[in-house]
Design goal:
The strands form 7 sheets. Strands 2, 3, 4, 5 and 6 form a 5-stranded antiparallel β-sheet that branches. The protein has 2 helices and 27 strands. The protein has one domain: Neuraminidase (6 Propeller), CATH 2.120.10. It is mainly β. The longest helix has 6 residues. The protein is globular, with a radius of gyration of 20 Å.
């Protein structure tokens, strides 16, 4: 086992803030920030991240299969990686699709081992998680080193999940949607014999493939797949670990009525059931029991948005008002919400910025913890202090 290093209907109705708390802890809003475009000209960007190597570089993932480097504010002329021939053709065609290159994660020891991981849907529409190495040129990955380590058949073209991130325990976490169509027709949300509709946790510190962490929650459960860390997810679109505490936040795209954010404290031993498809957020879809379910901490209805994009807890140093605040957004409406846990342990959420003007496909962090927005229309935006 690895050493664990701890490092819009708004839900004010569900999480009431007392007047005393509101006075002692003002709710920050968009007046505390400004949005600064730092790069443009991308084709369907879906994610931005860093390599943790103190280089200051940012890596921008395009849905069509390319990853670009931003260095000193400029995009390098050559892609860091181009696997466009390997990804679903729909990712490079006209019209909206949920397929393509969907996730990127650099190994925590990337400066030493040069290892990174990608998540994409292949030419058959199935999920592939693959390991690669950087080449002798630090600005170019070795595409020939691509080694698929996990393959998951996708029954439909939507709800692929696709996010990857290393947890504070050093394991790789993988978000998988329920397989698509609508309403979870295969019942994958509550099944433990499929990797669909799950958050997976694997150990990738082996020469080939991966191994199963011995403390994964279903290792000893008959009929369950041992990769599963949590289940009951519809289409987790961006999850993140709080870099200060290790707590986990998952934005899960809803069905016809609700969008939600799910939470897992760093102390969790896994196995949470987030409810889909028995529940959509807090609303039962059948005469389903609530026993054993972990309900969302934030929700909003389709009166206020259509598709959630999970974000990050702000841990940068530039915007003191945002410290400890979780920012998330709606892809369709461009609204940004903020949420946090109050001193009594209750979760509260509020509208941070209405109609930002961006199709927010993802948030991202730079090496210092400052937050970025990925605008699906082709730009990368940094959240800056209002006065700077």
């Amino acid at each position: 086992m690895k050493l664990k290093i701890l490092p819009i209907v708004i839900v004010l109705l569900a999480h009431i803030v007392t007047p005393a708390l509101a006075q002692s802890q003002p709710l920050p809003d968009s007046s505390s920030v400004r949005m600064e475009e730092i790069a443009s000209g991308f084709a369907r960007p879906l994610f931005v991240t860093h390599a943790g190597d103190d280089s200051g570089r940012l890596f921008v993932v395009e849905q069509g299969g390319r990853i670009w480097i931003l260095q000193n504010g400029a995009r390098l002329a050559t892609p860091f990686l181009d696997i466009s021939p390997l990804v679903s053709p729909s990712a490079n065609s006209f019209g909206y699709t949920e397929q393509g290159l969907l996730g990127l994660a650099f190994h925590p020891n990337y400066p030493e081992n040069g290892t990174l991981f990608v998540n994409f849907t292949d030419t058959e529409g199935n999920t592939v998680v693959a390991r690669l190495q950087v080449s002798d040129d630090p600005n170019v990955a070795d595409s020939a080193s691509l080694e698929p380590i996990l393959n998951v058949v996708q029954p439909f073209a939507n709800h692929n999940g696709g996010h990857l991130a290393f947890g504070p325990d050093g394991y790789l976490y993988i978000a998988m949607g329920d397989g698509g169509s609508q309403g979870d027709p295969q019942g994958n949300g509550q099944r433990l014999d499929t990797l669909l509709a799950k958050l997976l946790r694997i150990d990738v510190d082996s020469e080939q493939g991966y191994t199963i962490p011995a403390d994964n929650p279903f290792v000893e459960t008959s009929g369950a797949l041992p990769e599963i860390w949590a289940y009951g997810l519809r289409n987790p679109w961006r999850f993140s670990f709080d870099r200060a505490t290790g707590d986990l936040f998952i934005g899960d795209v809803g069905g016809s009525v609700w969008e939600e954010v799910n939470y897992q404290p760093v102390s969790s031993t896994g196995g949470e059931n987030y409810g889909w498809s028995l529940y959509e957020a807090n609303e039962a879809r059948s005469a389903a029991p609530t026993d054993g379910l972990t309900m969302p901490i934030f929700t909003y209805s389709h009166n206020e948005g259509v598709s959630i994009t999970g974000g990050y807890i702000y841990r940068g140093s530039a915007i003191a008002e945002l410290n400890g605040v979780y920012l998330y957004a709606d892809f369709g409406y461009g609204t940004i919400w903020a949420g946090r846990q109050d001193s009594a342990g209750n979760w509260e959420s509020w509208e941070f910025m209405r109609n930002s003007g961006y199709a927010i496909s993802s948030f991202g962090e730079d090496e210092s913890g400052e937050l970025l927005i990925v605008n699906y229309s082709g730009t990368i935006v940094q959240i800056m202090p209002a006065q700077s």
